[in-house]
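Because showing beats explaining, we let one protein speak, sequence and backbone structure tokens together, and leave readers to judge.
___
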Amino acid sequence: MPFLLIDFPVFNPVALSLGPIVIRWYALAYIVGIVLGWIYARSLIKKERLWGGPAPITLPQLDDFILWITIGIIVGGRTGYVLFYNLPFFIAHPGEILELWKGGMSFHGGFLGCVAAVMLFARRNNIPILSLGDITTAVAPIGLFLGRLANFINSELWGRHADPDLPWAMIFPNGGPLPRHPSQLYEAGLEGIVLFAALAIMIRMGALKRPGLILGSFITIYGVARIIGEHFREPDPQLGFLWGGLTMGMLLSVPMIIVGVIIITTAVRRRANGPAPSST
């Protein structure tokens, strides 16, 4: 074994245990991601200069929206995994669809669930759909980052075989004897840190004044980041590689990029709200 090869640091999958109450790292990532996203969203809504005037959503409305978006993430994420990644299994074992503690969530399904939540809540509360979509996607990389870290801690969704000379190649306990890319960390960096930073800079430059610009940028950048990450990630075993070496994650990201570019183009052509942001 090469000197620099890293053995995966085995973590306890249970983050917190209080008697009969057991919270796993994956569930904790969802909880913390939603709470931190809610705090960040509140800070953005309070800064009128970012919107060119009062934000189109009030703080009480945001507080109510948290429940809607949480349901959208969970229902959409699970439904997407069932339909896109393991439908034959769940047709044969329908009772396991509700067993979320066993894992199995799809980002693309969760995203569609969030879209549904945004559209329904916006219509019910007379809020501009694109602006609500902007604030939702501005905070989404926080949850993505924590979710990928939870994937790493759980030793799941690991990467493809790597050159043993790669300094950070790892031997995952359930990934066989060969070294692999820690692709969960790659995705945490791309889908979490890089995406969050890019959107934060755009917001600072006044992107929220053009409804849909942050939403479209999130969709596009995530799609590109996901495709890059999929080049290092081992495909789900029940699917493997699809046509031409493509993976399901890649295929689902292509329409996201197309839709994102369309939304960006429309937003850029739309007149911005209010004055340019202050440089102070």
Summary: Confidence is low (pLDDT under 50) at residues 276-280. Residues 59-84 form the longest helix (26 residues).
